[in-house]
Amino acid sequence: MAARRRIAGGEVWRVVSGRAARVVAGVHQTWRRSLQVRVVTITLVASSLLVGGFAFLIADKITTILLDNARTDVRLRVNSGASYAAKQVSLYGQPQEAQLQETIDGTVNYLAGGDPQQTSGVVVAITADDYPNDIQTRAAPSVNVQPLISPELRAAVAEGKVASQIRTGRLTGQSTKYLVYGSPVPTRFGQIELYYLVPLTRQDSTAADARATVVATGVALVILLGLLAALVTRLVVNPVRVAARTAQRLSAGLLDQRMVVNGEDDLALLAASFNQMATNLQRQILRLEEMSRLQRRFTSDVSHELRTPLTTVRMAADLIFAERDEFDPAVARSAELLQAELDRFEELLTDLLEISRFDAGFAMLDAEPTDLVPVVHRVVERLAGLAERVGVPIELDLPGTPVIAEVDPRRVERVLRNLVGNAVEHGEARPVLITLGIDETAVAITVRDHGVGLKAGEEKLVFNRFWRADPSRARQTGGTGLGLSISLEDARLHGGWLEAWGAPGQGAQFRLTLPARAGDRLTTSPLRLVPADAALPFGGPRDGGPLAIGPGTGGALAIGPAPTGDGQRAEVGS
C-alpha cells in the first residue's frame, strides 16, 4: 500500500509540475511576444509599488496623529486629575487614617465621573505601591487594572515621572487596546499613583477606516493607471502590428499591400513612410524580376541561337581535325586546339541551357530506384585518365552491398562527376577518397581531397557561378565554371543537400546527401561533413556541427533546407 501511495503521489506530482511548467512557458511566451502585456505589467507593478508606499506613509501618518491627539488629551486629564487628587489627600498625614480610603474612593469616582463621555470606557485607578497594607487599589469602574499596569510603568511612576504605555487586555469582557497613563500624586506621608486607562477603540476604528479608504483609492488608481497604459499602448502598438502584418504580406509576395493613413501625427507619418517604402520596393522588385526574366531569356535565346553556328563550325572543325596528319605540325596543333576549345564551348552551351532551365523552373526530376555503387564506378572510370595524367590516385570506400535510392541517375552522376573532377584538379598529387554511406532515410556521398583547401569565407562562394578560388590557376579539365552551381540545383531538385568543408592546407570535402525515397524530408546525413583526419582549432566537433561553419574551422557551408541534428546548415543561395 505504501509503495502504491508513493507511486500515485509521484504521478500526481508529475502531472501538477507538468501543468505548472506549461503555464509558466505560456506566460513567458506571452511576455516575450506582446509589447502591450509588458508595458501594462510594468506600469501596474511600478504604480502598485509607488501607490503602496504612499498609502503606507499616509496611513502611518494618520495613525500617528490620532495617537498623538489621544496622548495629549489623556495627559491633560492626568495632570488635572493628579492636582485634584493631591488636594484631596493633602489633609492626611498618615496612610493609616480611617478617612483616607474613603477620600481616595470618592476621588476616583469623581475623576471617572468627570469624563464627559460616560460610555467611553475610561478607567481611573489610584494605587499605593509603597503602602499596600494600608491603602487598597481603587478603580472606577470597579475592575482589576493590575494586569494592564506593567512593572516598568509602575517603576517609572514610582520614581516621580509621568509615564505611559499602550497595553492590550480584558477589563470589560473583550480584548481592548488601552493607552495607560500614570502620574505620581504627592502627599504629606509619601506618594500614591494615579492611572488613567483610556481605550483606543475609536482611534483604531478611525485609523482602520482611513487605511481602508487609502487602500481602496490606491487600488482604484492602480487599475485606472493599468487601463490608461493599456489604452495608450494599444494606440501605439496597433499601427506597429498592422505594419508587421503588412510587411509579412509583402514578404509573401503580395506587393500591393499598404497601410491605412489616418491623421497627421507620428503614427500617420510612420504609415505614410512605410507605404512609400513598400511602393519603392515593389517598383524595384518588379524591375529586378523583369531584368532577371530578360536575362534568363537572353541566356536561353543566345544558347539556342549559338547551336546552329556551333554545329556548322563543329562540322568544319571535325573535318580539319580528321585531316590534321596531312598538315604541317603548326597547323595540326592548331586543329587540335580548335577541337578542344570547341568541346569546351559545347559543354559551356550545354551548361548554360541547363542553368536556364533551372532558372525558369522547367527542370524536372526523373527519379527511379537506382543502385549508386555502379554510378560511382562509372564516374571514376570516366575520370581515370585525367587522374592518371595529373598523378592523383582515386580511392573508394563503398559498401559491399547495393545502395538503392530513388534518384535521377543522370543528375546524380553529373553531380559526382563535377565533385570528383574538382577534387582531382585540386588534389595536388594526393589521393582523393570517395565514400558512400546509407541509413534508413538517406544516402550520402563524400568526396575528400588533400589539396590546398579553402580559405575562410571561400566556402560561401564555392557554389557561385563562374567562381574560382585561384583565378591564376589553369584548369586541368577545361571546365565551364558552372559545374558546382548545376550540382547545387540538382541536389535541391532531389530535396537534398550539397555541402562543402575546407581548411587551408588540409584540403576540402564535399558531401551530397539525398533522401532514400523521393519526396522525403531529410533530417540527418549518414556521413559527417568534416573529415575525421581534419585538425580543427578550438577542439570543435567533427560531425558537421555549427562550429564547422565558422571562419576558425575553415568554414563548413550549409547548402539546401536547414535540417535538424547532424548536417544542420543555414541555407544560402547559389
TrEMBL record:
Q: Could you tell me the membrane topology recorded for this protein? A: Multi-pass membrane protein
Name where it's found.
Cell membrane
Q: What keywords would UniProt list here?
A: ATP-binding, Cell membrane, Kinase, Membrane, Nucleotide-binding, Phosphoprotein, Transferase, Transmembrane, Transmembrane helix, Two-component regulatory system
The residues covered by the HAMP domain are 234-286
GO terms for molecular function, please? ATP binding; phosphorelay sensor kinase activity
SMART domains for the chain? HAMP (SM00304), HATPase_c (SM00387), HisKA (SM00388)
Domain (Histidine kinase): residue spans on this chain: 301-518
Q: Identify the Pfam families for this entry.
A: HAMP, HATPase_c, HisKA
- Which reaction(s) does its UniProt entry say it catalyses? ATP + protein L-histidine = ADP + protein N-phospho-L-histidine
**Record's protein name:** Sensor histidine kinase MtrB
